[in-house]
Amino acid sequence: KMARDLSFRVAVLFSFLFFGFINFVCCNNERRVGDALETDFSGLSVPLEHSFELDDTAKFVVRGTLLLKTGREPSVALSQNPLSEEDRVKLKEVAEVDGLYRIRVPRVSLQADRQTEWQVDGYLTAFVRACAMVESHLSDVITLHTDVSGYLIGVSIVTIPGACRGTKVEDEVDLEVFNTTLSIMAPVNAPGPETSLFLERMEQETEKKGKNPQEQKSFFAKYWYLILGGAIFLMVSNSAQPPAGGGREQS
Amino acid sequence: MAKLILLLLNWIFLCCNVAAVFEDQVGKFDWRQQYVGKVRFSHFDSHMQSSKKVLLASESNVFAALNTRTGELFWRHVDKTGPEGNIDALLQHGQDAVLVIGNGHLLRSWDIGVGGMNWEMVLDPGSFRSACLVGHQGAVKHLAVLKKTVISLHYLSNGHQKWVENLPESETVDFQAVYSGGNGEVYALGVVPNSHLAIVVYSLEDGEITKQVSVEAPWLSSIPASCSVISRGLLTCVDSTTMSLYTLDLHLQLEMTQIPLQTLGLDVDPGFRPSLVSHQPNPAHPPLSEFLLQLGPEHHLLLQHNDGQIVTLRDYKPALLASFATAGEKTVVAVMAPKNKTACSINLFSAETGRRLLETTLIFTVDPNGGKPEKLHVQAFLKKDDSVGYRVMVQTEDHTLTFIQQPGRVMWTREEALSDVVTMEMVDLPLTGAQAELEGEFGKKADGLMSMVMKRLSSQLIMLQAWIAHLWKLFYDARKPRSQVKNDVSIENLSRDEFNLQKMMVLVTASGKLFGIDSKTGDILWKHYLENIPLNAAFKLMVQRTTAHFPHPPQCTLLIKDKDTGLATLHVFNPIFGRRSQVTPPALPQPILQSLLLPLMDQDYAKVLLLVDDQYKVSAFPSTKNVLQQLQETASSIFFYLADSGQGRLSGYRLRTDLSTEQVWEVVIPTETQKIVSIKGKRSNEHVHSQGRVMGDRSVLYKYLNPNLLAVVTESTDLHQERSFIGILLIDGVTGRIIHEAVQRKARGPVHVVHSENWVVYEYWSTKSRRNEFSVIELYEGMDLYNSTVFSSLDRPHAPQVLQQSYIFPSSISTMEATLTEKGITSRHLLVGLPSGGILSLPKMFLDPRRPEVISEQSREENLIPYAPELIIRTEWFINYNQTVSRVRGIYTAPSGLESTCLVVAYGLDIYHTRVYPSKQFDVLKDDYDYMLISSVLFALFFATMISKRLAEVKLLNRAWR
User: Fold this and answer.
1) Does one domain contain both B504 and B567?
2) Where are the transmembrane segments (chain A) (predicted)?
3) Which domain holds residue B952?
4) What's the whole-number mean pLDDT along residues B652-661?
């Protein structure tokens, strides 16, 4: 019982650890344009840019603003503009020629000491197929990854659903507002060998063994009846008489 | 508890799939070849007339003795790699060989008879310059070691120091050579470059400086390169700028005598640095007054110093190599001269007179696929009639040793290049001619019924003929004694066996020599030396066309890239015969960043190789119209990644239809905290049989089988044991999506990674617990599959479940690889090369993050082993029993035609090949299978049915009559 209890505790601990590093923030269609910077969020605001062109050249324009809360437990919020009429048409056209929808964020550090300003130190880019973007009605999942020191190292974007089935999106309204799920992920601590738990388990087992005198009986003490039965059977069969009940124990 | 133990035992029995080798199976499925490396020093053991040993000290820090009759190793000592074990000097006297090791750190004496160590001495620190044996009054009892600041004298018998003296003015004078002429004095020769020569003479008895002079020599910069001591202490130097010989009597003179080469009627080849070779047969006596002077790449001279005069005894031109050798009292000069393109002749000349000795010509055939001769090691001996006989060991540029006897019989060759294999591939052998003929029928266009029938008949006839020939050979061989029957493997009769167990191993060595080795016997079937390989070249070997496309020959491509400039060349060859292919590879004027072999094929079934240059332009090879068209069609689905570990940048690109590229994703890992050390993708020829794992409750846990997944390993730049870490990133190579990111805290490299199926196994050093640890990451999609028919990186929105577990491993490891089988049904094992020379076959079952900490009914149902933090090395898991593989650097695995069998090659200093059966030989009948019993039972049953049928008929008939 103890062991099960322990493992349960460990599982809880691990899930806690796991979720500790992932902070989901869901941002839905805030229609305010750019003025989200002056909220109570103390942190860093960086642009989230996107690009979709018919000839697949990258021409990034601002899609929204990421508000990164720096510090020990980083979190992220996003305020983004709806797509304009012109962009919606372009996105659909790009989707038809199987173009790419790209996003990029600048490389910044979420460490507390350099939070106020960020310099352009290069960008992190990712892409999905434009058709997937259209067919999912702009429902995308953007994940920002940081390294151990809180530096952004990568960004990824997927759409749900992710497939391109060629279904037409007729209603223009579906392509107006982004339905973005945003999260930021720090590296998980990889587990080392679980020695303490194993030793505990071993100890428990030895204890159990100590408590239960049944287990400690010798071989003869445990199986004396079988041996006796066998011996009787042998004796009986040796005396060339048809065995009456000796074989029962054997079978 | 008892149940638990029983269960455990059961599991252990279940898991111990690797059965040990029976004694009679030793060497049946496996072979090992041991090498020495590129030879630096060699000595023929000449203290005994009948001795057949040659001592070799190599650049791979190996000291060995070879049997001169067979070329096999008598014994071998492998020292540490790197400068620590570097062999600086080899001195041999009688039964003893003394090595100076590790830039003058150690002095070791070996008994050359049995290879045992006599003694070892640790020397005072200081960088090593030179060493020599010191003889006195006809006996050699000491050796002198010259270092940068000190000179020391040691007893040859026990290594003890007799005396050690500081060198005078060692701050300004660079002492470079030590010499003793057997007269009780030791000379230390130093030079102040372009100024003067310093000579310090020490007394042998007590190390007292008896004489110290400095001689003007403004032309001199290095003593070993241009000077040598000849005769009774006559220092002779050659200088190319003044075109002169200089002589200096170390006992008497205080000034060098200049002898312009013109006065001797000699001339140095332009641009050549002349060199001098003298010979001292016995350290107790002064060197000979004859010496060799090399004036050009093909010009040698034998000169003699006679009463203050230098006399030319003989002019050898053309002569590639010249070398002294002594037998008894006689000293000879062996000279190798080019004869024609394919052969060189070696002749002996008397050193005293320069006269050619009769009947001493020896022909050395130069291998057209080998390198030029580089060194000549001569073993001279006295014949019964007191004339001099000799054998030579020729060392060529490709690190080959060839031992030749008169009149040109090659006794053995050793390919020491194989001690440094860089990469390899295994290629299926072709079908036999007849089989191929039959196969070829199907590929051709039909040309009429009649001709087809005729063709089929003729090919069947050929096969019949071959079969009869085979039977005849069997019958013929059966009459001969067993020892005489040789199964000669040659390129002509190579053919695939029933289960494709025999393959052609194509090995690429660091020296630029390629080898084709038969995997069954280990015989070298072809070799090809590539000249002009840059020293720091990186090689990548790719199989463009396998043997499956008869009549097109198989084709391998080797990409050779200079690591500094990035410039690359391609060598295209046939892997079965080793010949350069007819196809001309494209010239690559731009540095190459990445190469990738696509699964696309051109009309001749050659896979397309894409090369990305530093302008991010892509060129294809072969680049026929057909290929370009296919590339245009599929361009939007061709993605590749580039990694720049210097900037920590990983970027993904997509191919455009005009063969330019566009960057589609970028991940940047800041180099201030961590650096990328390795990136591992999956092997393209890997098959995964089952998509999921059946759980205890009969549900299925689906594996996340992303063929584009990359495992990126980073190490922290901070090496402090509390703050160092290892980072593991799993990145999708197409979308750049980071699937999983983990850090192993308090850990340090070197990290060894294996990435296969849905798992990544890595090994690291835990700085906290000071031990080696294994960690395994497994990825699962979950209980239901997103899209079961096809995997696309662009359409997998859900992140996989990640499970991880770590274990303690009791040994450090050298290399790691996973087994590979034809269809991926067989369970996987990890092959771990240990520094001890063992190769461990570790079942993947033990590295499973689902191993439960607490055993439940379900985990038992699933056959999961309960978690134990330590992985134990079981001796029966060693696949190479006592066949130690020294310094194993890489393990290559290849599937065979049998699902149960995986072919393994471990390479390092040695090469070892064997087969492994991770799930036992479930598809093969055992060796001792009782055919008699089973066939007799079958026959008995057959007859029984016949008889009973007959009886039943009779009975039925009788009943009918009744």
Assistant:
1) yes
2) 6-26, 223-241
3) 930-961
4) 88
Same domain, B439 and B557: yes
Same domain, B569 and B626: no
Determine which helix (DSSP H) or strand (DSSP E) holds B66, and give its type and residue range.
strand B62-67
Instruction: Report pLDDT digits (tens) over B512-536.
Output: 999 999 998 888 989 999 988 888 8
Are residues B664 and B533 part of one domain? no
B569 within some domain: yes
Q: Are B869 and A193 within 8 A, CB to CB?
A: yes
Closest CA–CA distance from residue A206 to any residue of chain B (Å): 9
Distance from the B482 Cα atom to the nearest Cα atom in chain A, whole angstroms: 55
Q: Is residue B860 in a domain?
A: no
Please indicate if any CB of chain A lies within 8 Å of the CB of B668.
yes
pTM assigned to the model: 0.84
- One domain for residues B424 and B524: yes
Query: Which residue in B435, B275, B404, B267 sits closest to B336, CA to CA?
Result: B404
> Comparing C-alpha atoms, which of B530, B421, B534, B492 is closest to residue B912?
B421
Interface test with A, best of B664, B748, B774, B801 (most A CBs within 10 A): B664
Residue A250: the pLDDT is 42
| Separation in Å, CA of A194 to nearest CA in chain B | 6
Q: Report percent pLDDT > 70 for chain A.
A: 70
Side chain identity at residue B552, one-letter code: H
Percentage of chain B exceeding pLDDT 90: 34
Q: Do A160 and B656 touch (CB under 8 A)?
A: no
Cα distance between residue A225 and residue A231, in whole Å: 10
Extended beta strands in A42-194, E state: 44-51, 61-69, 75-80, 100-106, 123-129, 139-146, 152-159, 179-185, 188-189
Residues B439 and B555 reside in one and the same domain: yes
Helix/strand/coil (H/E/C) assignment for every residue in B28-60: CCCEEECCCCCEEEEEECCCCCCCCEEEEEECC
| Bond prior to B554 in cis (omega within 30° of 0) | no
A148 interaction partners in chain B (CB closer than 8 Å): 673-674, 725, 727, 743
Q: Could you give the ipTM of this predicted complex?
A: 0.77
Interface contact flag, A205 B725, Cβ < 8 Å: no
Same domain, residue pair B556 and B603: no
User: Is the same domain home to B563 and B425?
Assistant: yes
Residue B673: closest CA among chain A residues belongs to which residue? A149
Do the domain assignments include residue B648?
Answer: yes
Distance from CA of B727 to the nearest CA of A (A): 8
The answer to whether residue B220 sits within a structural domain is no
Mutate which of A94, A101, A127, A139 to disrupt the B interface (most B C-beta within 10 Å)? A127
What is the residue type of B837? G
Q: Which of B585, B609, B639 is the last residue of a domain?
A: B585
Domain boundary among B552, B585, B618: B585
Q: Is B905 helix (H, G, I), strand (E, B) or coil?
A: strand
**Angstrom distances, CA of residue B785 to CA of B261, B278, B700, B735, B796:** 86, 78, 10, 20, 10
Tens-place pLDDT, residues B26-81: 778 899 999 999 999 998 887 776 778 899 999 999 999 999 889 899 999 999 88
Instruction: Count structural domains, chain B.
Output: 3
With 80 as the cut, is the pLDDT of residue A213 above it?
A: no
